[in-house]
Task: inverse folding
């Protein structure tokens, strides 16, 4: 087994195609197939199954992929061309608005020689990037999607109900989650942490509302709510300004706390550099100060 074998395996796994892997690696397709065969012989188990002319990873292949990613990464980090250290960090959109900018600025000030790369996207995207080793760390809301991901709790946040000042719900003395589900709802898109959290809340009450409006943009939802198009449940930290300006109003949901956990995550097989450990500590300090 060589690094070359592992690189071929990673390309095949990520594309589920020996043809595509051969194109990316500039190798003949028989050479790619032979490398996978040699790797399976060395390992003593099958990495892929072929059904209906398509490749599917075996459970052993999935586990091998997670380890191979980090072996190749560790090898590449030893090469002189890759001597400059970098840190790849992701976050969900809510955290990317209030936590990431401050911590990233602190990190860059403390480590000016380390190249910091950040992406902000929905929870599913950043967690997939952690699993594929395209990110070193990520900050997410809600549960993690895989038992291959390590998770360190940072803080809690809350979703709040927002509506236009003249919405009929404003006059209610108490609003329940059932009341909310019966209104025109404006929600984040499928794959976002906020949407997954709300879907689980509604499901726990045997409710299945169909959103009237879906968007990747929290601000677009807030503006639509302010026009009386519907109501929404969004992170408190992202609605504070609009509430203070009177663009929208907020009311408590009497039977549902709408609290969720925010965490920093990384792959369990990941070797955490000193820079990564320091970034995690900066996040912990920021969140501790925010709670006090």
Result:
């Amino acid at each position: 087994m060589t690094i070359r074998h592992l690189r071929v395996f990673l390309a095949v796994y990520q594309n589920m195609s020996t043809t595509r892997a051969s194109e990316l690696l500039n190798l003949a397709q028989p050479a790619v197939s032979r490398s996978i065969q040699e790797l399976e012989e060395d390992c003593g188990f099958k990495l892929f199954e072929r059904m209906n002319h398509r490749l599917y990873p075996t459970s052993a292949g999935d586990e091998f992929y997670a380890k191979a990613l980090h072996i190749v990464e560790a090898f590449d980090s030893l090469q002189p061309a890759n001597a400059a250290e970098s840190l790849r960090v992701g976050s969900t959109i809510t955290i990317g608005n209030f936590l990431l900018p401050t911590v990233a600025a602190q990190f860059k000030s403390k480590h000016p020689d380390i190249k910091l790369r950040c992406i902000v996207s929905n929870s599913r995207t950043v967690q997939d990037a952690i699993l594929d080793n395209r990110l070193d760390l990520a900050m997410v809301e809600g549960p993690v999607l895989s038992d291959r991901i390590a998770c360190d709790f940072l803080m809690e946040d809350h979703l709040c109900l927002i509506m236009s000042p003249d919405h009929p719900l404003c006059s209610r003395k108490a609003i329940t989650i059932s009341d909310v589900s019966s209104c025109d709802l404006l929600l984040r898109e499928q794959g976002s942490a906020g949407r997954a959290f709300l879907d689980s809340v509604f499901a726990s009450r045997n409710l299945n509302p169909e959103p009237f409006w879906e968007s990747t943009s929290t601000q677009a939802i807030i503006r639509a709510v302010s026009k009386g198009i519907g109501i929404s449940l969004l992170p408190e930290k992202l609605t504070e300004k609009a509430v203070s300006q009177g663009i929208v109003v907020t009311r408590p949901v009497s039977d549902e706390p709408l609290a969720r956990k925010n965490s920093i995550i990384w792959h369990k097989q990941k070797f955490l550099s000193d820079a990564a450990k320091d970034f995690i500590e900066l996040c912990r300090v920021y969140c501790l100060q925010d709670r006090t």
